[in-house]
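Write out the 3D structure for:
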Amino acid sequence: MNYKKFGNTDLVVSEIGFGAWGIGGPAMVGDTAIGWGDVDDNTSTKALQKSFDLGINFFDTADFYGFGHSEELIGKVFGNSNDVVIATKVGHRVENKTIILDYSKKHILNSCNDSLKRLKRNKIDYYQLHSAKLEHLKNGECIQAMEQLKKEGKILHWGISLNTFDPYPEAEYLMERNLADGFQLVLNIINQRALKLISNVYKAGYGIIARIPLQFGLLTGKFTKETRFNKNDHRYFRLEPNFLSELIDSLEDVWQISEKYNVDKSTFALSFILNHTGVSTVIPGIKTSEQAEKNTKSLVKISDEDLNSIHQLFEKKFDSLVNKMK
């Protein structure tokens, strides 16, 4: 496992991290799934332990994953250990079966205390605003809350989990004001919209977390056009049959390129991300020990020519598909 300094902070993180959304379980908001279907806590606990044994020291979660259950499992396994770097998020809550984005100072301060209890930690290493919009940042309460928590020692560093489809406005707002320590953004073979942002963010000294590296499992190559998801899995509505079929067809050229590297599709997809300078850590979702092993295989150096070919495929094919994503 390779390790990298997280921006200008004192955090050192494994280049492959643990995305803990999946272990939160099959949470629902009304009829809408916000989780990854059924999971077993014993399996999740073993996955966390196995990941650590394989060198993963960065664990990314949120208070909304399983309504706190993901945090509870991480707290159960690692507690207040200094051997791990724990990142979590704040800003989502449910009211009358509706997801509410709440970046008020009161909500953030209270939620941080709740997360600390679930994580069984004295402090959170990296606290993130969970998809806050520009309007929330301009309001200022969320920034005031983060700075207060930092002064109180409840968090060491803070940042923001950026919008999936347009990560630029919020990142630029914070960079212009020298605020925050890092950004979490979507980057994978299909969704490359954040690529132009990474270089500027890196040069400015921010840590970068790449999320959804396998695009909900699509880039593992395990799905077929006949794959279907249960209603308690958010992919039920995100990867509907016709769209799934279209996405699978669109990847044929990518897999032709990957064949020359003699690695499985997951490893190639993770390698693609970490072949871009500036990415601190990539957080594939891990729900089992087997997935932990698969996601920590040795990565490969992809040639500039092949990287450029994949970038061109984004312009020609994938960007229009990203427009169809929910």
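The longest strand covers residues 124-130.
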